[in-house]
Design brief:
about 35% helix, 10 strands, seven-stranded mixed sheet, alpha/beta, three-stranded antiparallel sheet
Length: about 290
């Protein structure tokens, strides 16, 4: 049985059928649909994506679903922050009109046996560190796009490799009639990229996490100073990460932003991706490297 609750001006639906009915009603009013898929734990970065989705009077639909298939058994699924009432209120404040907050069996019903596997941009970095992660991401995003069938979908640049995977998946599965918009990284005033996992950090770890942004800045400074060897630029970023006692570096890698292949020479476009574990949180960040 569907349970639908309404807290003006936003509606929460929990079943596929209720979602389709609500989207059909939006379209019957002659409005476009902008969609933002999320796992909740909202911050200003999420809200910025919702505002982008709502441009030109598009109705904003937000999914709120902590997707179990993108977590490995050793990862933080059970601890992932959840506060639906807070998230719904924040989504409403950003102009969202409809939240799809399904249970797991609405996304993966009994007997579900299909996985979307994307080759290419999944081979390195997060794909190598978390080998099942992007299959889970691609599968749930494909399902959500097919459920909502939006005119536009908005993702955040902070998850740059996920963006590359979604682009490839949408192209390969003929979902490219949906406009894909990438919102810029939203940062705290001190430069830390906003992330739902930042809530895991103690005060000292929160300060230590600033090293990710410093590593990106140090790499750009090396390029500005004339360095053109990609491995040398990556080494500068890694050394910066390693200099922070509370951070354990994972990688600093220059890639093509769409293909996500490692660059053998430094030309534009170039994207530097970094990852490190700080306290209990594994954090990622990235920046486009400018070559003058």
């Amino acid at each position: 049985m569907d349970t639908t609750t309404t807290t003006p001006p936003i509606t929460v639906v929990r079943t596929r059928e209720a979602l389709r009915d609500a989207v059909s009603a939006i379209r019957a009013d002659g409005r476009g649909v902008g969609f933002v898929p999320t796992m909740g734990a909202f911050h200003d970065g999420h809200l910025s994506l919702m505002r982008i989705a709502g441009q030109d009077d598009h109705a904003v639909v937000v999914s709120l679903f902590v997707n179990p298939t993108q977590f490995a058994p050793t990862e933080d699924l059970s601890k992932y922050p959840r506060d639906e009432a807070r998230d719904v209120a924040m989504a409403a404040s950003a102009g969202a009109e409809l939240v799809f907050a399904p249970t797991v069996d609405q996304i993966y019903p009994d007997g579900f046996g299909t996985t979307v596997s994307v080759d290419g941009p999944t081979r390195i970095l997060e794909g190598a560190t978390r080998p099942t992660h992007f299959n889970g991401v691609a599968t749930v995003v494909a399902k959500l796009l097919n459920m909502v069938r939006p005119d536009r979908a908005v993702f955040g640049q902070k998850d740059a490799q996920q963006v590359a995977v979604v682009k490839r998946m949408m192209r390969d599965l003929d979902l490219d009639d949906i406009e894909l918009i990438i919102g810029p990284i939203v940062r705290e005033s001190d430069g830390l990229a906003m992330s739902s996992r930042n809530v895991y950090l103690s005060d000292a770890e929160r300060q230590a996490a600033l090293v990710l942004r410093r590593s990106l800045d140090a790499a750009q400074a090396a390029v500005d100073g004339g360095q053109r060897d990609p491995r040398a630029v990556e080494a500068v970023a890694l050394a910066t990460l390693a200099a922070e006692p509370l951070a354990t570096p994972d990688y600093a890698t220059l890639v093509h932003p769409d293909a996500f292949v490692v660059l053998d020479r430094l030309t534009e476009p170039a994207l530097l991706c970094v990852a490190a574990t700080v306290g209990p949180a594994r954090l990622i960040d990235n920046t486009h490297i400018t070559v003058n």
